[in-house]
Amino acid sequence: MSDPGHSVTTRDGVRIAFRRYGGGRQAAVIVCPGFFQSKDTPTFQHLSQALAESCDVIAMDFRGHGRSGGRYTFSAQEPADLDAVLGWARARYARLAVIGFSMGGAIAINTLSHSPAQVHGLIAVSAPSTFEAIEFQFWTPEAIRTGLQGWERGAGCRPGNLLLSKERAVDHVSQLAPIPLLFIHGTRDVIVGVDHSRRLYAAASEPKRLEILEGGSHAEALFRDDPDRFVSLINSWLAQTLPPPASA
Question: What are the tens digits of pLDDT across the range 150-180?
C-alpha cells in the first residue's frame, strides 16, 4: 500500500515528487528510475510494491519526469533532486539504501560521492560509467523490444539542456567507501553495455559486489522479465546491509 504522495523542493527551486510504500519501519530504500521512466509506470509500481514487503520504499521522479517539475538535464543537475529526497528520508529512517536504474544509478553514485554517510547501501542497475559512452544500438531487435516495453503509461520526459557539464560516475565511485555497493547488469543490454558496470566495479572500493545476469536486458527490464529473480537478489543484499523490518 502506498501513500498519496509527497514532494520536496530542491536547493535550486525544483519540486520533486515521490511516493512512499509502507511506513513505520526503521529502514527504507529510495528507488531512482532512469531516463524516460517514472515512479508511476506499471513496472516501477510493481517493483516498489514487491520491495515494500521487506522494507519501506520511497520511489521518486527526477526533474522533468512524472509529477516532478523542471526539465531533465541528463545527470547535470539531478543530484539536487536525490539530495532533497534524502533529506526528507533521513529525518524519518535510521538506515537508508538507494537503488538507481540506468541514469538514476549514475546520478546516485555522483550524489552520494559527496556525502556517503547519508546512506548504508547503494545498488546501481545498468548504470553508465560515463554519459558520453552510452551506446544505444537502436536498430537491433533487442533495442526495439526494450524501447517498446519501456513505453508504459506514466513514462516520458521533458528534456532540458543536454550540453550542461556532467560528472562521470566512474570518477566518483571510489569515494563511496565504506558504503556497500552492488552493481547489477544484464549481458544483453544494448543501451548501456555490461562493460559499464565492470568499469564501475573495478574503480569502486570495498565492500562491493558485481552481479552479471546472463541474457538480461536493460535496467527495469531485468525486473520486468524475471521479477522473482530480481527481487530475490535485491532482498538478499538488503538483508545484509539494512536491519530486518521493525516497527519504529
Answer: 789 999 999 999 999 999 999 999 999 999 9
Is pTM beyond 0.85 here? Answer: yes
Are the C-beta atoms of residues 183 and 211 closer than 8 Å to each other? yes
Domain ranges of the chain: 6-241
Identity of the residue numbered 82: L
Neighbours of 53 (CB within 10 A): 12
The predicted-structure confidence for 32-89, as pLDDT tens digits, reads as follows: 999 999 999 999 999 999 999 999 999 999 999 999 999 999 999 999 999 999 999 9
Q: Coil, strand, or helix at residue 53?
A: coil
> Cell numbers at residue 212, please?
552479471
CATH number of 6-241: 3.40.50.1820
Question: How far out from the chain centre does Cα 248 lie?
Answer: 25
For residues 97 and 184, what is the distance between their CA atoms, to the nearest angstrom?
15
